[in-house]
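Design job #97: recover the sequence.
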């Protein structure tokens, strides 16, 4: 009989502490949707009341299936529950569960909090009780638990037991500075499990010694049944336990797959590579090529003995089948794979496709050619869908762009301030009629966006609610001839969100490509009736 393991994602809080990462509310909404696609049980959205972004994010529930969790801290020393604004803000958030953090290292209690050990235990009990009274699922993060255990074992354990007795669903043991090794974690968790039931114990590991995944697995072996981590292992300092590595290990590896079950389905596992890469694109970061399971090099083999043998019997050279995690085998001299990935993505997008259709090969070749030029479709579903539909059938030509021009002028305004103004002119043809629009903006892309959406003829009503929600740029290679990739995220009043991509040595051209794809996808999904259609698969002409 298998036991249930619960996965708890802290990307939106721990990940926000990563140097160079700053989530907006819109970012958090998108990332939440991505995490849910991975089958995670709990999604911790941040700390309501701590900053305006998290407070706004918790103004409504943001998950469909996962347990939406707010983070906070136990009540402060010397204050009552009703007189602690920080705790009250967390309790009032639109959340299914509340995870409170508490000091469990006696040194931190007396020095950092400036309170007594007994008062800290009482604060844990009262705070967990308050969460229960609000009808939320309570849990406690035992901060610096392993350090506290080594310094004063009895007190660290007393904190965990106090939370458990007060009704915490989960008591999570935190390796907050990431310095504990797997053998220590396993021994300590096993001892704690003698006092707190394993099915109420969790592990929260940081990666400062490169052991966060190993420490999480060690805790599971010792009895813990909740694992906390982040997408791609992001987090402060060296990061957190990487859920993208943990999930396939738990589902595919002997000793875990035969003993435990998770909320991640086989189909969700098969999309893990795409989810990991889409998240990197959202962060505007290059994916780690050698990341376990999902990296581009994870199942890559160079020419020679291994390359010839792997084609005959892949299982002898690969520790898992790459398709199980949505990756693919790469034989670097002669790439033999890729079709299954394209078919899986077509199925996800609802595009009918036959494995033996020769147009699948044409689409695959085009995707490979574009990837070599710098295109990336992992986080640009709308652009990929347009590309695929052009290959497998047709995409209506709602409008044709005849030309566009952007001017940037720096000048003094009427009150003597030095300002920079962008002006864009776009000429399009709709049903044989040429339309020309001019738009001004605070930058070239903003001006282009305003110009192209200013007058789209009879299609104008379909795009009235279209908004540009996010814009990311990545320089793919250095020098004056650098290639630029632009990722644009759009949304509409119905709550639809989609992403498009453009690639060019010219950032304005790349941006315009993504803008045109965004509008085309919107018209396609809105059911706009075109004047005529352009049949595929003349993909090389599509930019």
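Job complete. Output follows.
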């Amino acid at each position: 009989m298998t036991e249930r393991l619960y996965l708890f994602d802290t990307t939106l809080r721990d990940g926000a502490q990563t140097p160079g990462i700053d989530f907006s509310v819109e970012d958090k909404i998108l990332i939440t949707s991505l995490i849910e696609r991975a089958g995670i049980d709990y999604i911790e959205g941040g700390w309501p009341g701590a900053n305006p972004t998290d407070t706004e994010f918790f103004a409504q529930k943001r998950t469909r299936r996962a347990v939406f969790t707010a983070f906070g801290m136990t009540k402060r020393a010397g204050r009552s529950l009703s007189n602690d604004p920080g705790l009250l803000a967390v309790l009032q958030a639109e959340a299914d569960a509340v995870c409170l953090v508490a000091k469990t290292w006696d040194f931190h209690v007396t020095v950092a909090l400036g309170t007594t050990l007994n008062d800290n235990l009482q604060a844990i009990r009262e705070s967990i009780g308050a969460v229960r009274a609000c009808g939320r699922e309570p849990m406690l993060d035992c901060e610096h638990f392993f350090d506290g255990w080594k310094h004063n074992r009895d007190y660290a354990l007393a904190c965990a037991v106090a939370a458990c007795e007060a009704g915490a669903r989960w008591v999570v043991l935190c390796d907050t500075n990431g310095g504990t090794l797997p053998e220590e974690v396993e021994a300590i968790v096993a001892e704690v499990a003698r006092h707190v039931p394993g099915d109420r114990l969790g592990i929260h590991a940081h990666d400062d010694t490169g052991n966060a995944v190993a420490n999480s697995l060690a805790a599971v072996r010792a009895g813990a049944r909740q694992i906390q981590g982040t997408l791609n292992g992001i987090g402060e300092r060296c990061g957190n336990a990487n859920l993208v590595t943990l999930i396939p290990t738990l589902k595919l590896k002997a000793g875990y797959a035969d003993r435990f079950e998770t909320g991640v389905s086989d189909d969700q596992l098969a999309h893990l590579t795409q989810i990991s890469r889409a998240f990197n694109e959202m962060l505007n970061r290059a994916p780690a090529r050698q990341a376990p399971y999902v990296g581009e090099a994870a199942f890559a083999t160079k020419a020679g003995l291994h390359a010839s043998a792997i084609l005959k019997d892949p299982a002898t050279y690969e520790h898992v089948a790459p398709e199980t995690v949505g990756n693919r085998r790469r034989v670097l001299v002669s790439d033999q794979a890729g079709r299954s990935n394209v078919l899986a993505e077509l199925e996800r997008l609802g595009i009918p496709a036959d494995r033996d259709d020769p147009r699948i090969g044409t689409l695959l070749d085009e995707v490979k050619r574009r990837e070599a030029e710098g295109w990336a479709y992992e986080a640009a579903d709308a652009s990929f869908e347009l590309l695929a539909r052009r290959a497998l059938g047709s995409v209506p030509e709602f409008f044709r762009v005849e030309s566009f021009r952007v001017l940037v002028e720096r000048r003094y305004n009427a009150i003597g301030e030095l300002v920079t103004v962008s002006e864009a002119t776009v000429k399009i043809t709709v049903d044989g009629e040429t339309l020309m629009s001019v738009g001004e903006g605070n930058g070239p892309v903003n001006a282009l966006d305003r110009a192209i959406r200013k007058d789209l003829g009879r299609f104008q009503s379909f795009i009235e609610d279209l908004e540009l929600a996010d814009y990311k740029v990545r320089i793919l290679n250095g020098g004056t001839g650098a290639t630029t990739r632009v990722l644009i995220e759009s949304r509409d009043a119905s709550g639809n969100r989609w992403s498009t991509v453009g690639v060019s040595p010219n950032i304005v051209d790349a941006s315009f490509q993504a803008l045109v794809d965004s509008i085309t996808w919107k018209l396609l999904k809105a059911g706009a009736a075109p004047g005529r259609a352009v049949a595929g698969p003349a993909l090389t002409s599509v930019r």
